[in-house]
Amino acid sequence: MKITLSVLAGLSMAEAFTQSSGPMARPAVVKMSEEAVAEEEPAEVVEEPEPVPEPEPATVELFGKAPFIGGELFLGETEWNKFTTEYGSAETGTYLRAAELKHGRSAMLATVGFALQKFGVTFDKISPHEYLSVSQGVKFADLAAMGPVAAIKACPVEGLAQIFAVIAAIEIYELTHRDGEIKEGESVPPGLQAGGLTGYNLNYNPLKIEITDRRKLVELQNGRAAMFAISAWVAAETIPGSVPIPLLW
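Now predict its structure.
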């Protein structure tokens, strides 16, 4: 009898243990898991920063814009901006202005000489010497009878060499001097340094004229006009009919 009661008691305890670990216990587990999820903080959404646009390169102002109707005319603005920002710097613009200024000065001298030759104001009328070159037998009167292009071609080689020697001396002075003084001991001449060649390196001003921006602009504009003029005159002289505009001579 005692053995039977012991077996029944053991079976009842096992049944109670099995029920407590069965489906009746699942809601508690689910409830605990839901509470754990609720306790978890939501993940923060990290916003990606917006890309910062690259700043546009600053352009270099061009001195010498051509005055136009109600404003100013700037031909070649795109090329100027490329040369002074993408391909170079502000010093590149200084060099380009100096090159234009020097070409303009050469063109102004050329137009004056061309016009004087055409109008008959030649050295055979004002020079006390008859010959340009005695050794070569070249007379001023012979050159006066020619056109300007033919006359320069008839000059002896020694005469052309003298012209280029004077030009070379002026250029060397500009390249080696700054503020009127020669710069020694520099590996690169001042005129070849960045922004060193400005077109005003000579500082030759015996009349003490005030060099204002207006005077610089006038010189630059006259040089541009002279470059157009001498190109047209030489074309008309060498290729008849190439310039449809009647000239003064």
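Residues 115 and 150 are 14 Å apart (CA to CA).
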